[in-house]
Amino acid sequence: MIRGVLLDLSGVIYIGNELVDGAAEAVRRLHQADLPVRFITNTTRSTRAVILRKLARMGLDLDPEALFTAPLAARAYVQRHGLHPLCVVHPALAEDLPDTAGEAYDAVLVGDAGHEFTYENMNRAFRLLLEGAPLLAMGNNRYFKEADGYSLDVGPFVAALEYAADTKAVVLGKPAAAFFQAAVGELGCAPGEAVMVGDDVASDVKGAIDAGLKALLVRTGKYRPDDEQQLRGTGADVVDDLVAAVDWVVRARDQDR
Amino acid sequence: MIRGVLLDLSGVIYIGNELVDGAAEAVRRLHQADLPVRFITNTTRSTRAVILRKLARMGLDLDPEALFTAPLAARAYVQRHGLHPLCVVHPALAEDLPDTAGEAYDAVLVGDAGHEFTYENMNRAFRLLLEGAPLLAMGNNRYFKEADGYSLDVGPFVAALEYAADTKAVVLGKPAAAFFQAAVGELGCAPGEAVMVGDDVASDVKGAIDAGLKALLVRTGKYRPDDEQQLRGTGADVVDDLVAAVDWVVRARDQDR
After folding, report:
1. What is the DSSP string of B114-148?
2. Strand intervals (E) in A66-159
C-alpha cells in the first residue's frame, strides 16, 4: 500500500530554470489523491528560502515544511553533536548553516561548494581531518547537469578527502538511509509505504531502496540510458518523467485499495 | 643479494630546501660500495632540470640519467599510445610534458597540480572522462609535507575523478609496479636484488614490495609513527634516516657476499 511520496527536485520537478512539463499539475494530482508529499534535495547551493522562491517563480508554490534539504539535516546533526565545523560549502548556503567562522573547528562539513573547492580550502579541510576531525558530507552525488553539460557535485570532493585522510564521511543527505527515513517520518507512514521519485540512479533510487522505500527512476535530468541496467533486480521501476511517475503512483495506490 | 638501490627524493634526500643530515655522504658511500643508484620521484611540480639544479644547490650533484621521474614516465606512456591529453598539472612542469594545448583531447593526465586544482579544471577533466577518455595519473600519493604542514598531493584529486566518472586511473609513477620495474631495469639487476628507500609507507614501501623489491621506510619526511604498524608482515624494515638506510644496505650486501 502506497501512503506517501518523496520527490527529488532538480531533474525531476525542474531542469535549469523551468518546471518539467506537467510538473505543477502532477504535484496537484498527488494532493488531490490525498497522498502526502515531501520534496527532498541534496542541492547545497541554495537555502530553503531561495529554493522556495525559485519554485514559486516557476509556478510551484510549496509549504516550507514540505521541503526537506540536506543542509537542514546537516545543521540539525551539527547542533545535536555540539560540533563547530569548518564549512566548505557554496557561499549562497550560509543562511541555512550554523555560523562557526572564527571558532576552533572540530569537524569538516562539505557541500557542493562549486568554485569554493579551491586547493586552499581542500587543504584546510584535510589538515583538520588529519587531526581527527570528523568529515560530514551533505550528500555523495557524483555530478549534476548544468546548462552547458555535467558538473562535479560534492561526492568527488568527499571521495578526495576520504582518500587523503584515510577516513569515511558521515553522509547527511541522500543516499543516507537516515535521511530518507527522517523524510518518510514526516509523511506519517512506514518506509515500505513510501515511493521515492528521482533522476539519480545511485543517490535517489538505490539509496531509497536500501532505506526500505519503493523507488522510481525518471528519464529526465541527469538520467543516462545505461542507468537502467544498474536497477535490474532492485525492484525499482523506470518511467519517462514526473507525470508518468505520478500516474504510476496513483494507479498503484488505487489498485491496492 | 643486493645489487642496486632506489632512493626517493623528498623526505629522504631533502626536506624543504635542505639535504637531510649526512645525505650527500650517504649517496657517496653507495657509489664507493659499487652499488648503482637511481633517484625516483613522483614529484610533479618540477622538471627534471629544475630538480637537478635544486639538488646541486643543496650540495648533491647527480648525473641526469640517475633521476627517474613520474612526469618522464608519463610522457613516454602518452607518446607510446599516441594520446593527446588534457594536462591538469603544475605550471612549472610544462617543459617535461608533451604540448597538447589546442588539440582535441582524448585523455586526461593529472599531476600534483596544486592551485591548478580548480573546480573549472576538475570539471574539464571530468567531462572528458565521461566521454570515455582514459585517466592517467602521475602517482596516487595522498599528501606531502610542506613548511607549514601537510598538503594534498595528486592522489585525492585522482580519487575524486575516479569516483565522479566511475573509472580507474592508470598510475604512471609510484606505486605502479611498472614504474619500479622500469627503474630497476636501469640498475641492471632483478627486482628482488634492489632496495627501495622511501618515507611514504604506501607509495614507496608497499609499492616497492608489491613490485618484488626489498624496501626500507625512513623516519624522516612524511613518516608518521603509526606507519610502522602498516608494515607488519610485509618484510619491510624501518630505519631512522638515509644514513641508517645506507648502513643497512651496505651491511646486508656485504653479509651476502
Report:
1. GGG--HHHHHHHHHHHHTT--EEES----EEEETT
2. 67-69, 85-88, 107-110, 135-137, 143-146, 149-152
B93: closest CA of chain A, how far (Å): 18
Does the beta carbon of A147 lie under 8 angstroms from any beta carbon of chain B? no
Residue of B nearest to A122 (CA): B152
Asked if A142 has any chain B CB less than 8 Å from its own CB, the reply is yes
Nearest CB among A120, A151, A157 relative to B160 is that of A157
Of B115, B126, B142, the CB nearest to A163: B142
DSSP characters for A231-250?
TTTT--EEESSHHHHHHHHH
* Cα dihedral value A187, A191, A192, A196, nearest 10: 70
How far is A43 from chain B, CA to nearest CA, in Å?
A: 17
Closest in A113, A143, A161 to B156, CB measured = A161
Distance from C-alpha of B152 to C-alpha of B122, rounded to nearest angstrom: 15
pTM: 0.83
pLDDT tens-place string over residues A191-250:
999 999 999 999 899 999 999 999 999 999 989 999 999 999 999 999 999 999 999 999
Chain B residues close to A113, C-beta within 8 Å = 119
Cα separation, B34 vs A132, in Å, equals: 46
Q: How far apart are CA A227 and CA A114, in angstroms?
A: 25
End-to-end CA distance of chain A: 8
Q: How far apart are CA B66 and CA B62, in angstroms?
A: 7
Contact B120/A at CB under 8 A = yes
Q: Cα(B126)–Cα(A152) distance, rounded to whole angstroms?
A: 7
Q: Does A151 contact chain B (CB < 8 Å)?
A: yes
What is the arrangement of strands in the sheet containing A37-41, beginning at the earlier edge strand?
Answer: A67-69, A37-41, A4-8, A194-198, A214-218, A237-239
Reported as a single tens digit per residue, the pLDDT across A40-85 is: 998 888 899 999 999 999 999 999 999 999 998 999 899 989 999 9
Cell triple for B175? 606505486
Phi, psi of B207 (to 5 degrees): -55, -45
Chain-chain contact of A151 with B123 (C-beta, under 8 angstroms): yes
CA B49, B55, B57, B59 dihedral sign is negative
For A123, the closest of B123, B152, B160 (CB atoms) is B152
The predicted structure's pLDDT at residue A257: 77
Rounded Cα distance, B74 and B108, in Å: 11
